[in-house]
Amino acid sequence: MGEFKISLKEFEIQFYKCQRCGKCRVVCPTYEEVGWESISARGRILLAQAFLKGDLPPTKRLIDSMYLCTTCKFCEEVCPADVKLIEIGEAGRADLYRLKKIPEGYFKLLQNIFTTDNPFGFDPSTRTEFIQKVGLQEKKADVLFYVGCMASSVRRLARVANKTIDLLKSMNINFTTLGNQEVCCGEPLLCAGAKPEFEKQAEKNLKLFQKVGVKEIITACPACFEVFKNYYPKIFGKMDFNVHHILEVLAERIRKGSVEFKKEVNMKITYHDSCHLGRRMQLYELPREIIRSLPGVELVEMKLSKENSMCCGGGGGLNVAFPEVAHSIAKKRVKDALETGVEAIVTDCPTCEFILSHAIVEDKLKIRILSLVELVSSAEPVFQAD
Amino acid sequence: MVLYLSQHDNLYNKLVEIVGESNVSSDEADLYCYSFDKFSHPYIQSELRRYRPIAVVRPQNTSQVSRILAFANEKKIPVVPRGAGSSYTGSVNPIKGGIVLDLTRMNKIKKIDVDNLQVVVEPGVVKAKLDEALRPYGFFFPPDPGSEEYCTIGGMIATNAAGMRSVKYGVTRDYVLSLEVVLPNGEVIRTGAKTLKYSIGYDLTRLFVGSEGTLGVITEATLKILPLPEHRAVVLALYEDLKAATTIAVRLIKAKVIPSAVEFLDKFSIQVVNQYSKLGIPEVEAAVLIELDGSVEDVKAKLKKTVKIVLESGAVEVKTAEDPAEREKLWTARRDIGPAFLRLRPEIGDMSSGEDIVVPLSRLSEAILRTQKIREKYGVLLGLVGHAGDGNVHNVILINPLKMEEEFPRIRKVWEEVYLMALELGGALAGEHGIGLARKAFIEKQHGRGVEVMKTIKRALDPNNIMNPGKIFDLD
User: Fold this and answer.
1) Which one of A23, A37, A53 has the shortest CB-CB distance to B30?
2) Residue B248, Cα to own-chain centre: how many angstroms?
3) Four-residue CA torsion sign, A326, A328, A331, A333
4) Which residues in chain A have Cβ-Cβ distances shorter than 8 Å to B42?
5) How far is C-alpha B265 from the geometric centre of its chain's CA atoms?
6) How many CB atoms are located within 10 Å of the residue A358 CB?
7) The architecture CATH gives domain A116-250
């Protein structure tokens, strides 16, 4: 097992690399909301170093500084000095967590995961309440569709899971789900800085995967996807299964020309890049490639897209401890979408969908939001056998 | 003297009364964050780590600034105004404690008045945001510091900032028509007039431009704007002859071609940027990038002329670009200098120091050669880049933070020798970054008795010395 280092002391050199230019501030969604220097990557770096050196106590603002961040990685995208701003933030959270100095909202989240294996605290037996049963459930299978907690717990997001299941079936993929046995991937624990618990959660998952004998995991949640892909190997080293986002699977079929769409969708949409699939996994073109292949779909980009996409407000667990800030960021993102004059926002991420839909509903805005798998389904794809 | 909040029990309440609770902080973490700028690193210039403000306040309008200053003046509490905190000189470090006034909430563009070629803005407007707002009108605010994406207009005025395009468009000073300023006693004045010219007595506008927050707080600025050029072209010229490279701007101007930018990189800078950007620029003594702007026909004519003049001047290679993407490609060499230096030794995590001397154009090659000699003498990693159109040279010096004790005294010597050389050549300590703390020790060498006049003005406007004390010069 590899050693997953996550502590500020690993970043001694990084602290000097930051030139405090402030380029990170102008792209930071939380800084724009809160406006205090401490709530920007530049401020966070200063504070993290002083905290590490024992020159600053964990004051309220210092704790807020580490947690009031969507971890959207826009700051890293523009940093001239290539400072590992996101990892430093994660390490700061981990160090504060060790001291149990975390924002109030996170205690409930952690408690939920510890007791129910999902961040919302719902009874595990209800995990499949809104989700269609998969015949092969709990049997051995090469492919596992990992549903993720968002699609399992929010009724309207169950569509993401159900449409994904439909697509996998129509692709003739022999797959299973973990049903009620599925547990959280651990991403919210990382957001909380709860590194030991994250490792335990990862081990729990790994055992479940091994039980099924999985060779490939497909998920429709970019956060789970990134955690499996980027963080699990930090603990376990090379894993004996592959991880794919459903959009990768779809794109592959489209590239091969083994799919035909039966229905013209006739919709003008904009695409919201989630931070996980976008800046963190660098998959910008892939979803667009899928969108372009759908008959009758017109894509209008927002002024901030791809590398320069703006977070929905839900990243990094912001919604847990600072819901007003998250909500306000979401409203801005919806405004970006409205400016394009489209009828729907399409995204790859159930969390983005959840957060943005709240902003839409609250202001009764004339724009829909749907997942890209839903949009693909509505074009009635017919897959040829491999 | 460092003041602590506990010594001013009613201070916090008073500030809350003026700006509201959510806009005042005395949380140690905030006080720390507002104690540094681009120049001052808490663990490198460790002497600066001791200084903290007693509170950070975020006013939203002139009336709040006025009330804060009146109160601070009465209690003799220092006030340090601050925009983006991207200064290169420590000019926003609260070295006498007091209140840091974060002006970034005052970020409204109040009026875009194209008919009168002007805009009215609050000090916290980010320069790039102003240009974004002006673009639909086909206009822009010409001064273009390298930090334009994040620096504020207030900071630009307070330091008389400028950038690559000064050769054609001048500096911030040239665009400030009128200011609203809160004086240290809380009084609000208006300087100049909202006209493109005026002849109305002492030019108080220019007094506040470059004053680095030592005389009052700028709360509103009326700025001149210009139409965006229709077209641009870029010429990359490579030289083995430094003198020819550094005099190309004057050659062009004499031939009635006024370039919008003339930038140069010395050999070491070319090597560094090649390593980072994989540009494969031949490693000659100097690379010069010339930008031309204007109407399409004008640019095309100027481009032809420029290529001819550049070749005649002894350039060993010339490349041109008019297409935006091609222009960008040529421009990468200059634009990537910052990241290229900062990523040269990733295992070390270098910090960089940027110097900012300016010399008369005819002495530029001498300044470069002498700086290169200073570089050899002290064995420092120093790249020379700058604005060859106006004689402004930036030395990018890399400093290994883990060998600070060994390296920093040497680097201080480099700074000192470079400053003295600039003055000897008839130049100035800073072209566009200001004095702040970094160059304070040399201010008398620059101005001689002139510093006494500055102090007289300072004492007259700010008798209690509350405004950004200890910057530019020491009063006592």
Assistant:
1) A37
2) 24
3) negative
4) 46, 49-50
5) 19
6) 20
7) 3-Layer(aba) Sandwich (3.40)
Q: From B31, which residue of chain A is nearest by alpha-carbon distance?
A: A38
Q: Which amino acid is at B28?
A: E
* A65/A58 Cα distance (integer angstroms): 10
Structural tokens at position B221? 């600025």
> CB neighbours (10 Å) of residue B105?
16
Q: Which helix (H) or strand (E) segment is B327 a member of? A: helix B324-335
A204-to-A53, A182, A211 alpha-carbon distances in Å: 35, 10, 11
By the 8 A CB rule, do A273 and A316 touch?
no
Separation between Cα atoms, residue B48 and residue B196, nearest integer Å? 42
- Asked if the C-beta of B174 comes within 8 angstroms of chain A's C-beta atoms, the answer is no
Cα-Cα-Cα-Cα dihedral sign, residues B432, B437, B442, B443: positive
The candidate with the shortest Cα–Cα distance to B360, out of B432, B426, B446, B418, is B426
Alpha-carbon separation of residue A125 from A135, A145, A153, B191 (angstroms): 17, 18, 11, 72
- In total, the C-beta contacts within 8 angstroms joining chain A to chain B are 110
Which of A8, A13, A21, A339 is the best residue to mutate to test the B interface, defined by the most B CB atoms within 10 Å of its own CB? A21
Arch. (CATH architecture) of A259-383: 3-Layer(aba) Sandwich (3.40)
Looking up tokens 């039966």 gives A262
CATH 3.40.50.1860 maps onto chain A at 259-383
Dmax over Cα atoms in chain A, in whole Å? 65
CATH code 3.40.1160.10 for A8-98: no
The pTM of this model reads 0.95
H or E element at residue A246: helix A246-256
Residue for token pair 């919008």:
B260
Distances (CA, A) of B199 to A98, B118, B196, B223: 66, 18, 11, 17
Contact B347, B402 (CB under 8 A): no
Complex ipTM value: 0.95
DSSP structural state of residue B229 = P
> Where in chain A are all domains bearing CATH 1.10.1060.10?
8-98
Which amino acid belongs to residue B143? P
Question: Are the beta carbons of B99 and B58 closer than 8 angstroms?
Answer: no
CB contact under 8 A, A26 and B401: no
Tokens of B191: 């300087």
pLDDT tens track, chain B, 476 positions: 344 555 456 889 999 999 999 999 999 999 999 999 998 888 888 888 889 999 999 999 999 999 999 999 999 999 999 999 999 999 999 999 999 999 999 999 999 999 999 999 999 999 999 999 999 999 999 999 999 999 999 999 999 999 999 999 999 999 999 999 999 999 999 999 999 999 999 999 999 999 999 999 999 999 999 999 999 999 999 999 999 999 999 999 999 999 999 999 999 999 999 999 888 999 999 999 999 999 999 999 999 999 999 999 999 999 999 999 999 999 998 989 989 999 998 888 787 877 899 999 999 999 999 999 999 999 999 999 999 999 999 999 998 888 888 888 899 999 999 999 999 999 999 999 999 999 999 999 999 999 999 999 999 999 999 999 999 999 97
